[in-house]
Amino acid sequence: MTQKQIIELQTYLKVNPDGFWGPKSIEAAQVHLRRLMPSNNPWPRTDEASLTAFYGQAGDESKLTNLDVAGLGLKYAGKSVKTVRCHYKVAESLKRVLAKLPVEILSKYDGCYNNRPMRGGSRPSLHARGAAVDFDAGNNGNRVSWPLTATMPFAVMEAFAREGWLAAGAFWSRDAMHFQATQ
């Protein structure tokens, strides 16, 4: 984001609009997103036991469904996407979020189900359970700081938060492409 965009976001979050994205701005963004989440968040915590109890074993493709997204404008590498393979428990929630996202984001879909470990780790990724989705990886990668360099709009994070999904960019200050159905 530009400094002007950061000042606009800080104003929106009701913190000192000084253009410096520091601890107070980070906390304000996280508090705002948590307030948007359902009071009884339907998703599990991120520890392995909670994830397995809720989603089952990572890589268990019997838990996946093909979510119909035809007509929403999703594109992967420039090609229209008709279905998203995701965990059946997140399907309806994900569809509601996707219906609210701008075409500029939907046209930069980078995947959902991918049976792999977390980047740089050995634990399974939430993608290995079909409970995470990525958008615009080229501008919002794992090691790209949000909002200083990454460009993921805060409104996209808000759309996911309203369904209880965690926006990595706001909560990890990086990996702004990544959204997962966890608390």
SSE order and pairing:
Blueprint: H1 3-13, H2 23-36, H3 48-55, E1 64-68, E2 75-76, E3 79-80, E4 83-87, H4 91-98, H5 103-106, E5 132-134, H6 154-161, E6 166-167, H7 168-172, E7 178-180
Antiparallel strand pairs: 1-4, 2-3, 5-7, 6-7
Characteristics:
183 residues, alpha+beta, three-stranded antiparallel β-sheet, 12% strand
Could you explain how this protein is built, in words?
This protein is of the alpha+beta class and 183 residues long. It has one domain. It contains seven helices and seven strands. Strand 2 (75-76) and strand 3 (79-80) form a beta hairpin.
Determine Rg (CA atoms, Å): 16 Å
Strand content: 5-15%
Structure class: alpha+beta
List the domain count as a whole number: 1
* Form type: globular
Mean pLDDT: 96
Main β-sheet, in a few words? 3 strands, antiparallel
